[in-house]
Amino acid sequence: MTSLAKIEQDERDNVELPLIAQLVTMGWEHTEGDKWVAAQSERSSFAEVVLRDRLRSKLIEINRNEHAQKWLTPVRADEAIAKLVAFRGATGLLTRNRALTEMLLTGVQIAKDPSQGEQRDPRVHFIDFDDWAANDFLAVNQFRVNRPGSTDWLLPDVVLFVNGIPIVVIECKSRHRKDPLVKAIDQLRRYANQRKPKSREGIEKLFDFNQLTIATSGDQARLGTFTAGPRHYGRWRTTEPGSEANVLAELGTSKLTAQQTLVAGVLRPAHLLDIVRNFVIFNDEGDRVAKIGPRYQQFRAVNRAVERLQTGKSISAGAKHDERGGVIWQTQGSGKSLAMVFLVRKMRNTAALRGHKIVFITDRRDLEGQLLGTARLTGETLSVARPQTRAPKGGVETATLTDLLKRKPPGLIFATIQKYRGADEKASDKDSADGLLDAVPEPLNTSDQIVVLADEAHRSHTSALHARLRAALPNAAHIGFTGTPILDEDKRKTTEIFGPFIDQYTLKESEEDGATVPITYEGRHAVAVVEGATSLDAVFSSFFAHLSQKERDAVVKRYATEGMVSEATEIIRAKARDMLIHYVETAMPDGFKAMVVASSRIAAVRYQEAFTELIDDLVVALDGDAEALTRWEKPDDGFLDRAALHLDRLKQIKAAAVISGAENDPPDGAPDSFVEWSDPTKTNGRITSFKKSIGADGGDVALLCVKSMLLTGFDAPIAQVMYLDRAMKGAELLQAIARVNRSADNKSRGFVVDYVGIAATLEAALALYRGEKPVKGASNDSDDELTRLEKRHARALALFSDRKLGLDDEDACVDALVEDAAFRADFADKFKDFARSLADTLPQPKALAYLGDAKRLGKIALRVRNLTRDDDLALVLADAAPKVRALIDEHVKAQGVDPTIAPVDLTDPAFAKEVDERKSPRAKAQVMEHAIRDYLTVLEDKHPARAIALSERLEEIIEKLADRWDELLDALVDLKDAATTSPSSTVPGLSAVERPFYELIVLRASLDGTAIDPKIIEATQKATALIRSEIAAVDFWRSETLRDGLRNKLVQLLDGYIDDFTTVQQLGDDMRDLAHRLHEELLGDV
């Protein structure tokens, strides 16, 4: 058995089959898939993905009238199925999936039948969410699906069906594979056509109804959706609401693997239907729509909260303090706000809580859309608190918060909080809510069926507004959500308001899970930005040297504090230049954006002005303007050359200020007017632009300059860098830096670049957040990343030096990698780590020293990838950070290699040209050998005899002609022609489907394949006739008895034609296996 075969066997024995066995213990039925026979998986063809017979049967069973009687006939069930399966209301997988998901949740209407007394079109439900046990749960492994309009197919490892509808796809990989989860997720993205949508490489129809995807290697497992990239697949660390002890007993083990935990926590039938119904949403933020499933901490917290709401005692029922509420503490960026939306959905689908009024208090308006979607699914109107009243329209009404609170339950109310503004913003020192909740002299609503959900509970809701809410709703339950520390001095007060903790999810857990990315801190005090400046006095001397002493003294008096100096236009420009250089070399090449936190609103506007001028000037310089180039000569470390690689992207970006207005602001047109940057409509447009990708329509805002706005409740995964030019501490500081910790594809970390010296404050805040004593090193320092880069670089080079190879001898390095698969795998691993660390540390001066080796190693990797078609190297190159990949691409292009051209298939007419482009006979032979191996792997499925014979010839040629490259190349060219040319002569009396059987007999019996043997033709005809007759039996391939019977009959038949009985026995096995592969062709289905 080859090493690959062993790995594939390990995937089946130690990942796939244990997963299925665990599903069976939880109540799932299992059917073994068959990649050759569609009927084995209850389908008439491999083009189908819905198990119609199973679905029809369940629809009739679960759809009942008010008397619990079945009313759906098979014909009417088919009418409902047709609306689901033949849905043509949308183009594009995501749009179809969104519409079909709503059908799964709410059902479809079919034509009424007046003869049955129906006066309106009845609704047919596809899943019984209220009684999970009434549904059908089926797991099918090795579920073949043909590509559209083709007999080519893909084979997902496990597909899970609820009532015959495929809603979960699982990909299993052996832990012995390199990066098994990366490969599993890549495979899932391929199936769903999400890697290269225009290529149509996948089987989109399998994902029309999909709700979840799972990647697993047994010891590791991740949950995602079909739109998720690798970073959005999350661990699942809990079996809740099921007991871990019960799961251990079920499985007879003392410790659960990651796979066992995820399967128990997510795929237990009751849990899965809960997730599908209440925890899967579509997010329209940014420039793409994504389907989002839950993270385990959201699922756990929501279910704990629902349990407490149902079991806790209210004040009106005699409790001294309401026992139904509490605090949910989840790290910033880990999905806290979505957990609030999930809780609303769960409450609306829980009978005991369905009639409650929910008051949703947050500072994030973008959640209004998610709540509207929830309200639509439950058939209610979303009431939004605003100063003006508006009748319901599009599922939304507006009224004052006071009026909305007075109404009897149920109801869904959405209100946004406007938090403190800065001192320079001249706002009242209190919170307010849209729709104005004035002082409340007496309760507005004494019902105990009211739940207040308060976002950012550590701050906004200890204020006067929350006190008024308490007075207005004296018997309501209150649940507070916080993403930053409820600091020690506030802990008692917070738990008094909301009750005990319901759930906690820490920063450490979040980073370990990949829910957020770690943040790297870099200190760059402002004086260091000004050349030659070592103190604040030096800054003045540098900028104001042209003034007389008297004038300089006046300036010093005017800018009497460091805070005032920080607003000086010249100093802001100097810092903005430093920030722009940093941004162009860190986040911009990878498509990410940055925020600047200024000391005041006027400073934020001046930053915007400085960036606008600097971006234009840098573009002009990179376009070759001599005068502009002199202004960018420093830093003289190659910055301009590296920036030139991303000139097109630089031309697509701009800066914007986002600030709030104040009552006494100068009017529009007046000096220092803020209207342009505080106008709500324009502000919302700039925020929307910032959230979009660079290059996307309307996505040009890449540098967002703020004072206080957007530092809390602002979720933009595209933000990677925060430049701090305002002193902060405690919760405000942690809230601010958390803007850059959101995970995104190709985002390994966020960056905080400090211009005001908050390092010690940050360490203390982080330590308090983690419940630790303040220690140096609580944040990630940029020096730590440089140390890691140095070590990873040394490991990559050691791979070659240990083999007496140097990077200067590129051809020798390539040859060694091509000829040694283990060396190749090790290189892919070490190069990936080195490239990742380089991306994390650029453009620090010490990191620049590693660029040369990165380019050389990248070129070697590209050449080896093209020669060997190595999947690992292809993945490493594809996943490298864009800024590193751009450097490698520029290097190889300069040497005449196009990095965008992938290897050509052996049968492609362009293959000969690819071979000819190689300089040496050795390189030509290497390309030829690996291309032939790839081709034979595909050929083996349907023509095993030819594939085996050709493979044996390949090994013989390589062994015989080793190191004789010219002769080897000639022999491989001949073999390539033989492999890709269909046999020229037909065999009289044999059809195309019979020919592979004839070839198999000739191969195994060691006969002369060039001579036509009538006796072997007759044997082939009789054998294929026998096979056709036998395999036509229902469930033939499932029956071991029938399979053994066919094998024995073939042996008996062939014994009359072939003398050697050992050969006859082997042929019995081989021909039966070939019959399985050619099942559809033999029975004329294809």
UniProtKB/TrEMBL annotation:
It comes from Paraconexibacter sp. AEG42_29. GO terms for molecular function: ATP binding; DNA binding; type I site-specific deoxyribonuclease activity. This is Type I restriction enzyme endonuclease subunit. GO terms for biological process: DNA restriction-modification system. Keywords: ATP-binding, DNA-binding, Endonuclease, Hydrolase, Nuclease, Nucleotide-binding, Restriction system. It catalyses: Endonucleolytic cleavage of DNA to give random double-stranded fragments with terminal 5'-phosphates, ATP is simultaneously hydrolyzed. Subunit R is required for both nuclease and ATPase activities, but not for modification. Residues 290-522 form the Helicase ATP-binding domain. Belongs to the HsdR family. Its EC number is 3.1.21.3. The type I restriction/modification system is composed of three polypeptides R, M and S. The lineage of its organism: Bacteria, Bacillati, Actinomycetota, Thermoleophilia, Solirubrobacterales.
